[in-house]
Amino acid sequence: MRLVVLGGGESGVGTAILGKKKGYDVFVSDFGKIKESYKEVLNHNGIAWEEEMHTESLILNADVVMKSPGIPEKSPIVKKLFEKGVKVISEIEFAAPYTKAITIGITGSNGKTTTTMLTYHLLKSAGLNVGLGGNIGKSFAWQVADNDFDSYVLELSSFQLDGIINYKPHIAILTNISPDHLDRYDYKYENYINSKFRITMNQTEEDYLIYDAEDEAITNWLKNNTTKATLIPFSLNQVFTEGAYIKDNKIEVKMMNHEEFSMETETIALEGKHNMKNAMAATSVAKLMQIRNATIRESLSNFQGVEHRLEKVLKIQNVQYINDSKATNVNASFFALDSVTTPTVWIVGGVDKGNDYNELMSLVNEKVKGIICLGVDNKKIIEAFGNVVDVMVEVDNMPDAVRMAQRMTEKGDTVLLSPACASFDLFENYEDRGKQFKQAVYNL
């Protein structure tokens, strides 16, 4: 059996290693450059590879192709594979049959990284033999090849879910859905929503779907479609006989055949309403995995949070600098602006993915004193907020953005990097953008 891997990054190299171990004839092809460290791994494992090209004669003869999530289905080589009827799948679909481990799959437009990290922290702190993978950390396939975990917590993007056929998580979490990546979904929101719900398409009555009961896109889909999974809702405002909710400033989790869980919200390490939702989702998993209440409480109170997600960097002259570089869509920036309580200078911009900034208008009106546009094309941001804030400037690098923000602030203000856009115009990725922001703050 010939396995061709498109993309020589973390998921691609991990898939190649697992494929080789399982007896496939493996070939890795990357249209860009492959990192030196990955080339060494491929060479060490005797896996053939190419970079900066796709040689059709070596790709179209595949029995199965694992496509890295960053490669669009519209790319010429993928179209040709579809035309030939070659099976094109994601890393998750390829690796899942080779492990007996339980998987917990977590998706959503926002909050999925925090929820994934928190869920992993809860299970690991309870002594479970658990791996962390998917869209975060070490490749799931690589871990299946090298480790023997009993369970995995997997962060799953819509692109990874697009490439599944039979994969099902035992426990799925859908944190929320808001317009994102619409450029990959023909600018149709319903296509993106359906993509997210692929997480539950193969689930059975023995599986669970944990979801935000206040999210309009999720609740509408559930009204009009069916899943066999047992539904476990969470909400800030509704109360359930089975599910997670907040009542009298306490998180409450109730489930059939499980001891009830309760914890004061103020003792949870994470802050903000959206993080209470993330905590409810992760706690629901912990209850299903039979973790003791005392362990859950301790883990929720000592969790450190996620880098580049509402990360408090420094306070300089009583101005708080916050790194929310992971906010690559409008909904994520909504949570960020909602969580700040002082006058804010907002650094925003990057590669627009079909953003509608109107959702942010009331928060910008209320909280934002100045906007710094950090992108190659800032037209939509200027059109949306040019008449709303007193000061708006454009810059094309992070040190200038941070220095300009410092000039615009006074004691008690906040400087918030929450771009609402992808980073690829000026930065390698959102991590690079966040690191440059932090460095520029340290240099003030």
TrEMBL record:
Q: Which reaction does it catalyse?
A: UDP-N-acetyl-alpha-D-muramoyl-L-alanine + D-glutamate + ATP = UDP-N-acetyl-alpha-D-muramoyl-L-alanyl-D-glutamate + ADP + phosphate + H(+)
Q: Its biological function? A: Cell wall formation. Catalyzes the addition of glutamate to the nucleotide precursor UDP-N-acetylmuramoyl-L-alanine (UMA).
> What keywords were assigned to this record?
ATP-binding, Cell cycle, Cell division, Cell shape, Cell wall biogenesis/degradation, Cytoplasm, Ligase, Nucleotide-binding, Peptidoglycan synthesis
Instruction: Give its localization.
Output: Cytoplasm
Primary localisation category: cytoplasm
Q: What is this protein called?
A: UDP-N-acetylmuramoylalanine--D-glutamate ligase
Q: Which organism is it from?
A: Flavobacterium ammonificans
Q: Which residues form the Mur ligase central domain?
A: 106-285
Family stated for the protein in its record:
Belongs to the MurCDEF family.
